[in-house]
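Posting this for the archive.
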Amino acid sequence: MNWIRLTFPRWLNIRLREQRVLIIGSGDLAKQIGTEIYNHKELGLKLVGFIDNDPAMLGKSIINPGVIGNQNDIASIVNSERIDEIIVALSDRRAKLPMSVLLDCKLHGVSIEEEATFLERMGGKVLLENLKPSWMVFSEGFKHFGYKKILKRVLDLFFATTGIILTLPVLLITAVLIKLDSKGPIIFKQERVGENGKEFEIYKFRSMKVDAETGTGPVWAGATDDRITRVGRIIRKLRIDELPQLVNVIKGDMSFVGPRPERPFFVKQLRKEIPFYDIRNVVKPGITGWAQINYPYGADMHDAMEKLQYDIWYIKNMSGFLDVMIVLGTFKVVLTGKGAR
């Protein structure tokens, strides 16, 4: 669970013990990783330097620090600089690595990672350009044991039941305001795609005018959408419109935490355009999720691709602990109004 180190300190505002990092490589990939380390000082990563076999690069600054040795110097640098982690960031995949030296470092407690794995942990998402079936088969994660599903279902029922009890006054007041504000039903029902591609009917407080898509067909909600009612704009901002989905969770159509369920019309489009899109449907969709607390509201194909990267990361690392942390993170998102539409 190395992802915990690079994920939750920024939420909890804590500083971790310093980890000293050495990067093998000095090209664009290495520079990208170095920049990420500098941009997230709260994670406790200290960049010591870069390794490059070109003698002309020795001492050259990459992003400060610079190149401090070649591959023959790795063992001595690890010892003298008390290196905790080595990241391999070579643009040329055919480049030879001193595997015996790296293995010795690993056996002595130094963490060794490729750049894709490090960036995955740093960003909390699986980059689609790095996604291959072989990687998914051999990588850690993507494990769905029976006890995980049982634990997840227990958490779902607990969160959903508690949520209904705590928000009952809000549910009643919202229902009255919707009825007074505009004509139409209080609860809006819509077909969504769930686990294993099975369609189900999702419940939401109605936030749009009746027959909002007459003449247009299904469209993503925009930043300024004149289909939304006055009360609808408020309950969307506060995410209150999602509360009836607690019933979907109790029924078993949804989980409290998971990828957001998409409409069948859009799923057909997204399957054609985005590789591995159906991976997100191997688990139940959720009221909230990893993508929802890390990425703004998705309103086009680009946003769908970005959110898929977070969804795949969640599926890979799914656990009861992660679900609890996502629920806590959701409260922060709701309080700040981040990403609502």
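The chain has two domains: 3-123, 146-336. The chain has a mean pLDDT of 85.
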